[in-house]
Write a structure and sequence with these properties.
Blueprint lengths: L1 H74 L8 H16 L2 H15 L13 H19 L1
Organism: Cyclopterus lumpus
GO biological process, one term: positive regulation of plasminogen activation
Pfam families: DUF2368
């Protein structure tokens, strides 16, 4: 009789473990999907910001370039054209960021760093773990209780 009961309990325990494993896997997949969607939304906002910046900076660049060119022609001082050079670099970078291939080049470089220069990505004192976090929490809580006295 006890053997049948323990066999049934073992089967139920095994089913429970499988259910918990399945449930934790499902929860992790959902969390990964959510984090990826948040990352995609943040990147979309960054690209949208770059495109808006290009509109405003492009207008500023056009007005400034026209003004400096007319001023240089009117008073015959070509030195007035000097600010156009750095402004052109800024505009080119922003255009590449907003509409060009900058994001793809950056992704390629990031992948290269992750594969061939992984040691650059290490955190000081290593990756945080439960023990290090708990130690810091205890230090803060003892400090807080000490300061309250």
């Amino acid at each position: 009789m006890g053997f049948l009961l323990s066999k049934s309990m073992d089967a139920n325990f095994k089913k429970q473990q499988e259910f918990m494993l399945h449930n934790s896997r499902l929860q992790m997949e959902r969390q990964m999907l959510m984090q990826n969607q948040m990352r995609e939304r943040q990147m979309a906002m960054q690209v949208a910001w770059s495109r808006e910046f290009v509109k405003y900076f492009g207008t500023f660049y056009t007005v400034t370039t026209a003004g400096l060119t007319l001023g240089a022609l009117k008073i015959k001082k070509p030195i007035l054209l000097a600010p156009i050079v750095p402004l052109s670099f800024i505009l080119a970078y922003q255009m590449d960021s907003a509409y060009g291939t900058l994001i793809y080049r950056m992704r390629g470089e990031a992948e290269s760093i992750m594969t061939s220069e992984h040691d650059r990505l290490d955190l000081p004192h290593g990756t945080p773990n439960f023990d290090s976090i708990e130690k810091a929490r205890r230090a803060r809580s003892s400090l807080a209780s000490f300061l309250e006295k």
